[in-house]
Amino acid sequence: MTRIVVLTGAGISAESGLGTFRDVGGLWSQYDLEEVATPQGFARNPRLVHDFYNARRANARAALPNAGHAALARLGAAMGDDLTLVTQNIDGLHEAAGSTGVIHMHGEIDIALCGACGARWTAPDEMAPEDACPDCARPATRPDIVWFGEMPYHMEEIGARLARADLFVAIGTSGEVYPAAGFVDEARRTGARTLEINLEPSRGRFDRVIAGPATEAVPAWVAEVIGAG
Ligand code: APR
């Protein structure tokens, strides 16, 4: 069986109503990422950062998976361990659609982390700087999100999967942020074919491009791979 690694970005959740970052009107045109998505910003103003993620957590928890998430769940059910699904997204929409073993390289909005002892727990709807860690009781809680300047999660596992991939597929990501943006080059170096599925495909780094909204383009591609589910 062909081994496939899929990387998703904000574009796959766009039609579920969750904003992207760099499209017109995207999150980084509304907020200064230095203030809300860096350790330095959190140290300067933890309440502002908690409020930013409290709003994103509410949106993510109210959102429903779309046909793109559902198609990838079907693909995972058909391929088992031959499919690796890596996401840059912090929402839980892949899991809500039925995907399992999703690798969240930028963390998850539904998980809280203690910056002091490393404990993790399901995040409450609202987090605040004065919250005490349930394990060590220190007021050091943060969203379990990888901020700019921090090392993404599961990089070793991702590297091993890319090295064995026959096909690498990037869905709904602008390819602006490393290390995720380098996965296509890493996969190609070890012989994988590469496919981009995007509303606005990026400049020619992929062997093949399917242009269109994820709710149409992803089910169409999955039907090619496993037949119309
Ligand atoms: N269907 C498919 N693709 C879409 C759709 C859609 N309906 N809407 C937007 N897109 C595409 C855009 O064309 C763009 O290429 O989704 C991509 C969104 O790009 P970004 O906003 O940069 O999001 P992403 O690539 O996920 O950002 C990567 O940057 O800010 C950090 O940590 C954050 O994980 C994020 C990372």
Please characterize this protein's 3D structure.
- With 229 residues, this protein is α/β, with parallel strands linked by helices.
- It is 34% helix and 19% strand.
- It folds into 2 domains: 1-18 and 65-106 and 152-229, TPP-binding domain (Rossmann fold), CATH 3.40.50; 19-62 and 109-145, 2-Layer Sandwich (SIR2/SIRT2 'Small Domain').
- The protein contains 9 helices and 9 strands.
- The protein has a 6-stranded parallel beta sheet with strand order 3-2-1-7-8-9, sandwiched between helices. A 3-stranded antiparallel beta sheet has the order 5-4-6.
- The chain is globular.
- Adenosine-5-diphosphoribose (APR) binds next to loops.
Beta content comes to 15-25%
Shape: globular
Q: Which class of the largest domain in CATH terms? A: Alpha Beta
The number of strands is 9
Proportion of helical residues: 25-40%
DSSP helical segment count: 9
The total domain count is 2
Order of helices and strands: EHHHHHEHEEEEHEHEEH
Q: List low-pLDDT spans.
A: none
Unique bound compounds:
adenosine-5-diphosphoribose
**Assigned CATH architecture of the largest domain:** 3-Layer(aba) Sandwich
**Which class do the helix and strand fractions yield?**
alpha/beta
Average pLDDT over all residues: 96
In CATH terms, the superfamily of the largest domain is TPP-binding domain
Q: Kindly identify the CATH topology of the largest domain.
A: Rossmann fold
Query: What kind of sheet is the major sheet?
Result: 6 strands, parallel
| Spatial arrangement of strands, main beta sheet | 3-2-1-7-8-9
> What is the rounded Rg?
18 Å
Distance between the termini: 18 Å
